[in-house]
Design goal:
Oligomer: single chain
Shape: elongated
Order of helices and strands: EHEHEHHEHEHEEEHHHHHHHHHH
Number of helices: 16
Strand order of the largest sheet: 2-1-3-4-8-7
Number of domains: 2
Protein name: Helix-turn-helix domain-containing protein
Helix content: 40-55%
Distance between the termini: 24 Å
Structural class: alpha/beta
Radius of gyration: 27 Å
InterPro entries: Class_I_gatase-like, Homeodomain-like_sf, HTH_AraC, HTH_AraC-typ_CS, Tscrpt_reg_AraC-type_HTH
Organism: Noviherbaspirillum saxi
CATH class of the largest domain: Alpha Beta
Keywords: DNA-binding, Transcription, Transcription regulation
GO molecular function, one term: DNA-binding transcription factor activity
């Protein structure tokens, strides 16, 4: 399952793609480890290379920021490798022509890697490099709109499709926009680790307002505070004991008042009883655990203070309108929403 991604630091490259791609791969590795807790290894390995295929050494400060990193010396069969081309920092089509003319080593590397069966991935202006190498002849590609006319004229054998943000044809992956390295990296995750993990990464990385509106991440009960000292102390105790059995006497003791005074203050300030508030906290905690963990339902229920899974399931459905299983399928980071 392991794969290696080599990121080419060519002349005039835009380094954002290099480190942005690494960020996506690191997130993918983290999510993979969350699902394979018995494994101490990472499935995706990467390194920065120059046009001769040699590893580029980074300053210690950057290395520390990227730690922990997989083994950059990991060797994979060609079919489990990818060569990522950073965008080129060019001023004009004429400047790009000059850059391509001076990129003999890069073009040779691209040809060799593609011929061996590896993936070549380019975005923004660097799509010109695989085109210059001839590996896009007869294949679909996309590029930044600013270079569309120049590209179609310079490389007429390439099937340029400016309507698409990303193309993947004949082991050549192209993304058109300046930030195209993100969907490009996600597509590499999809290719090497599967649809589900790639979708998980997309759900984590990409903005989707509907997820925020519908998921527990927007709920503020856990974060709300009150200026009423009695209620503040009571809420704090309840938040810290979500997984424990409800004890009104203990809540009142923590609030330094009688149970009767506590119930009156709580109703006046919160509009609910301490037990009702605790149930709301527990359901919010359950929603968060269902979204961001792979814990089984009985464990989720236990962490939310319920020893009876069936009772928890009934209460959850009464509060949310759907069962815990349905909620996880719809809102978990592994939910298969389309990109």
């Amino acid at each position: 399952m392991d794969a290696r991604i080599d990121i080419l630091f060519s002349r005039n490259c835009l380094p954002s793609a290099a480190f942005g791609t690494i960020d996506v791969l690191r997130i993918a590795n983290f999510l993979w480890r969350q699902r394979h807790r018995k494994s101490s290894a990472f499935p995706l390995h990467w390194r920065l290379i120059d046009a001769r295929g040699r590893t580029v050494k980074l300053p210690s400060l950057i290395c520390d920021a990227l730690s922990p990193s997989p083994d950059s010396r990991f060797k994979a069969p060609p079919a489990r490798t990818a060569l990522v081309l950073c965008g080129l920092n060019i001023e004009s089509p004429a400047h790009l022509d000059e850059t391509l003319a001076a990129s003999t080593l890069e073009v040779q590397l691209i040809k060799a890697r593609h011929a061996a069966g590896g993936i070549v991935a380019a975005y923004y202006s660097s799509v010109a490099l695989p085109a210059a190498a001839g590996v896009l002849d007869g294949r679909e590609a996309t590029i930044t709109w600013m270079l569309g006319g120049w590209f179609s004229h310079t490389f007429p054998k390439v099937k340029l499709d400016m309507e698409r943000a990303i193309t993947f044809d004949g082991n050549v992956l192209c993304a058109g926009s300046l930030d195209g390295y993100i969907p490009m990296a996600l597509e590499l995750v999809r290719h090497f680790l599967g649809d589900e993990l790639a979708q998980t990464c997309a759900n984590v990385i990409l903005h989707d307002s509907s997820r925020y509106k519908q998921s527990s991440l927007m709920l503020s009960t856990l974060a709300k505070r009150t200026r009423d000292g009695v209620v503040f102390k009571a809420k704090k105790w309840l938040e810290e004991h979500i997984d424990k059995a409800y004890d009104l006497e203990a809540v009142a003791l923590a609030s330094s008042v009688s149970t009767r005074t506590l119930l009156r203050h709580f109703q006046e300030v919160v509009g609910d009883s301490p037990l009702g508030h605790l149930q709301t906290l527990r359901i919010e905690r359950a929603r968060q655990l269902l979204e961001i963990t792979v814990l089984d339902l009985s464990t989720v229920a236990e962490k939310c203070g319920y020893r009876d899974t069936r009772a928890f399931r009934r209460l959850f459905k009464s509060q949310t309108g759907i069962s815990p299983a349905e909620y996880r399928q719809r809102y978990a980071v592994s939910a298969e929403h389309r990109l």
